[in-house]
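Q: Could you write out the predicted structure for this multi-component system? I'm mainly interested in how the pieces pack against one another.
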Amino acid sequence: MTYATANGRREVLRELSFEVGEGEFVCVAGPSGCGKTTLLRCLSGLLRPSGGEVWCRDRRVTEPPPDMALVFQDYSRALAPWRTVAKNVQLGLEGRLRRGERSARTERALAMVGLTGHERDYPSHLSGGMQQRVQIARAIAYEPAVLLMDEPFASLDALTRFKLEDTLLDVWAKLRQTIVLVTHDLDEAIYLGDRVIVLSAPPTRIVADVAIDLPRPRDQLVTKADPRFTLLRQQLFERILEVERAREADDASG
Amino acid sequence: MPAVSRHALPAAIPLGLTAAWEVIARALGYDSFPPPDRVLPAFWELLSTGALWTNTAHTLAIVLAAWVVSGVTGITVGLAIGLVRPAWRMSQTSIEFLRFIPPVALIPVVIIIYGFSNTTELVVAAYAAVWPVILNTGSGVAQVDRRLLEVGRLLRLGPLDVVRKLVLPSALPAIAVGLRLSLAISLIVVVTTEMVGVPDGLGFQLVSSSQALHQDRVYAYVVWIGNLGLLLAVLALWAERLVMPWRRPVRAEL
């Protein structure tokens, strides 16, 4: 993926190739500015890659496909302030489902993220964590086969983040969508994912792609205290440092 | 804030100004500058003969008609130039030229076409009042959050739904500002047209009173017109709150 910028062309993603299995929870972690968001925008069909292809279930992605949803980091911009919580969740369902089914789905989705009773609130009257729950409910109500998430918890405080991570794990345990979640937080990636893909700084490549064999259901305290968790974290960090050192050496010699 | 001071504060300045008017007018003792206690009887007289009501009805009807015409036209044109970038650039020069033509300069021209009629008043006022609606709608539409448009793409909304459900509502606060300006301009220009061109309504009564050397009536009309404007502004603000409930602050329950 190459962007044309004011200072010429800038290559953001290079030779990024991976597959995600049906129902798999994959976390993509990498330093900020490594093109994680660009990658997700390509996967979602919002952005056409300058080279390479994205495929989703035997179809090439050139536009946002109907069975895919994306949750943005900036919930306050992604929600319509003039729509109530329920109306925001229904945005993608209007004109496609009958009223009864629409509200049933909305109700289910809101219950799953713990927002029952807030149907008629406006987003501006909710906390950040709750607004992000609304965005997740909207994605769930759309009933996508693939759920993409762009740093969904990055602008929340630590405690709210942990709660939302667990909400997400609950939702996924019930619905088993394919999830690709992008984050800069290695701990979060290991805690949530079946698999963690680690990216380097740009031009971005995959530097690690490891399966996370931690047992489920996971728990913020138990899982993170598990020696295997600590070991995975250490291995991934070492790998990142190793790649960085190699690159610095390369730069110095070349 | 306690209820008393909430209503008393905005009333303080008008009451003070009226008192100052009384004192200064009495001290000066000019026939051409009557104090409020001479204007008030003139006002009651106008009220009791019914002349005030028929003229007010005439003027207000045209103000509202001009406001509706300029509102509908302005929102339509503003939407078009806000949505289509080239249309904006193409029309910018013309808009900046046309909106600086003083409406008063149009009065003789329009009188030649439509005579001394209600239509003349309507055309001149609607012309003057359309510009703030066009410009505010245009910039409101052009400033729709790009994130929200991406949400629309991801949820696969059609172009009509994008405009109806995302663009227009998010431009609504800007459109409301344009409509409020347009209402004030309508009132001012209708009265002006009646003063210098079409012999009808409040503006004409104001001028005739002046020519008949009834200064007390002139002031009665001026104060009355000001109060009409105030009433329209209050109604517009109230309607705005009704239409945009999400902008109301949550009131703490005590």
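A: Regarding packing and overall arrangement: The domain at 35-243 of chain B is CATH 1.10.3720.10 (MetI-like fold).
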